[in-house]
């Protein structure tokens, strides 16, 4: 867990300055990568395979099953929270509303918020939470699933979450907004409690929307 937290902090530090470090107007691709050599038409070709978000199975605030495939063709922003959070979650989601309002009429941008307290955060609780925030439609999903599976999934987003009876609300989690491209690759991470970084996230989503077709293939 300490290693995960360190990795995520490093990612956040890089993302915080990526608006000035972008090369050729492209966002960086984060996470591990592997060089894979194969033979194509008798020639040896080396491709780079990037870290991607794996499959998952959850239910949203409308009781609809949501998986990795549900996000096919979409750029999306992910975060981890719980509805009874007394600390950073309210701040995070007030800031996320800015992202929602900016892109709610866009056809290819979504937000997914994974609950880390699925025992309490039932479909009904998530729907009530969304309603209070004024969230409608399918641009922002609040997701509930198997607790251990969600915690494991958080590692794929380079976000640390854990139970801690001594922490406010009984959980510890990092307040990152993680930007994912249409190929399920991590393209940025932003402190969801920091309005300046959330503004950078909005700019980077717009940049990702204009990314050349040559960047689509892994």
Walk me through this protein's architecture.
- The chain has 218 residues and is α+β, with helices and mostly antiparallel strands.
- The protein has a single domain, classed as Glutaredoxin (3-Layer(aba) Sandwich).
- α3 packs parallel to α6.
- It is globular and about 60 Å long.
- It starts with a helix and ends in a 9-residue tail after the last helix.
The major β-sheet equals: 5 strands, mixed
Number of helices: 6
Can you list the strand order of the major beta sheet? 7-6-5-10-11
Shape: globular
β-strand number: 11
How far do the termini sit from each other? 29 Å
Number of domains: 1
- What percentage of amino acids are in beta strands? 25-35%
Write the element-wise H/E pattern from the N-terminal end onward: HHEEEEEHEHEHEEEEH
CATH topology: Glutaredoxin
Domain Thioredoxin: 47-210
GO molecular function: metal ion binding
InterPro entries: SCO1/SenC (IPR003782), Thioredoxin-like_sf (IPR036249), Thioredoxin_domain (IPR013766)
Keywords: Copper, Disulfide bond, Metal-binding
């Amino acid at each position: 867990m300490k290693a995960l937290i360190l990795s995520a902090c490093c990612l956040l530090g890089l993302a915080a300055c990526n608006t000035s470090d972008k090369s050729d107007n492209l966002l960086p691709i984060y996470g591990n990568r592997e060089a894979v050599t194969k033979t194509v038409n008798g020639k040896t070709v080396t491709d780079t395979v990037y870290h991607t978000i794996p499959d998952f199975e959850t239910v949203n605030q409308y009781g609809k099953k949501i998986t990795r495939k549900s996000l096919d063709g979409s750029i999306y922003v992910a975060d981890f929270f719980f509805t009874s959070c007394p600390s950073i979650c309210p701040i995070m989601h007030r800031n996320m509303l800015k992202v929602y309002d900016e892109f709610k009429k866009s056809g290819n941008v979504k937000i997914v918020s994974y609950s880390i307290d699925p025992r309490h955060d039932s479909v009904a609780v998530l729907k009530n939470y969304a309603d209070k925030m004024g969230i409608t439609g399918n641009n922002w999903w609040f997701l509930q699933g198997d607790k251990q599976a969600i915690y494991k999934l958080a590692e794929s987003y380079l976000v640390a979450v854990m139970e801690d009876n001594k922490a406010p609300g009984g959980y510890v989690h990092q307040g990152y907004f993680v930007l994912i491209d249409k190929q399920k690759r991590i393209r940025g991470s932003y402190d969801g409690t920091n309005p300046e970084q959330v503004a950078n996230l909005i700019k980077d989503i717009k940049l990702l929307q204009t990314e050349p077709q040559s960047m689509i293939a892994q």
